[in-house]
Write a structure and sequence with these properties.
GO cellular component, one term: plasma membrane
CATH architecture: Orthogonal Bundle
Order of helices and strands: HHEHEHH
Distance between the termini: 71 Å
GO molecular function: mechanosensitive monoatomic ion channel activity
Number of helices: 5
Shape: elongated
Subunit structure: Homopentamer.
CATH class: Mainly Alpha
Strand content: under 5%
Protein name: Large-conductance mechanosensitive channel
Number of strands: 2
CATH topology: Non-ribosomal Peptide Synthetase Peptidyl Carrier Protein, Chain A
Pfam family, one: MscL
Length: about 140
């Protein structure tokens, strides 16, 4: 049973998947930083300084200075800004993954494409042809 498990782990697909998950987790931090540090300020610039991460509605009817204050008070909130940022993160990640898959498929297609076949050059009779000719000559 242990040998079967070792064989399973050693297969390429499992190892590829593990590497993909690790890289994906690291990539998430990069995309989160991209959205928070680059995209949000640009969006805020065009929307008059609105910070989406602080956009929330307290469901108990009270007013709070920030989302953190409302959550600390235990108020039920719709954190619309956090949801919007999650959607933006997803769209960016999905687009980048799409581009990576497209690039990998293009590289695979180029690798699988057969090389141009050189035209067949007649180099003279084959060994079999020569032997057959000798046999026929000896029969006469």
């Amino acid at each position: 049973m242990i040998q079967e498990f070792k064989d399973f782990i050693a297969k390429g697909n499992v190892m590829d998947m593990a590497v993909g998950i690790i890289i994906g987790a690291a990539f998430t931090a990069i995309v989160t930083s991209l959205v928070a540090d680059i995209i949000n300020p640009v969006i805020a610039l065009f929307t008059g300084g609105i910070d989406f991460s602080g956009w929330f509605y307290a469901l108990n009817g009270e007013t709070y200075p920030s989302l953190a204050a409302a959550q600390e008070a235990g108020a039920p909130v719709f954190a619309v800004g956090n949801f919007l940022m999650a959607v933006i993160n997803f769209l960016i990640i999905a687009f980048v993954v799409f581009m990576l898959v497209k690039m990998v498929n293009r590289v695979k297609a180029a690798a699988e494409k057969p090389d141009e076949v050189a035209p067949e050059v007649h180099t003279g009779p084959s060994e079999l042809d020569v032997l057959l000719e000798i046999r026929d000559s000896l029969k006469r």
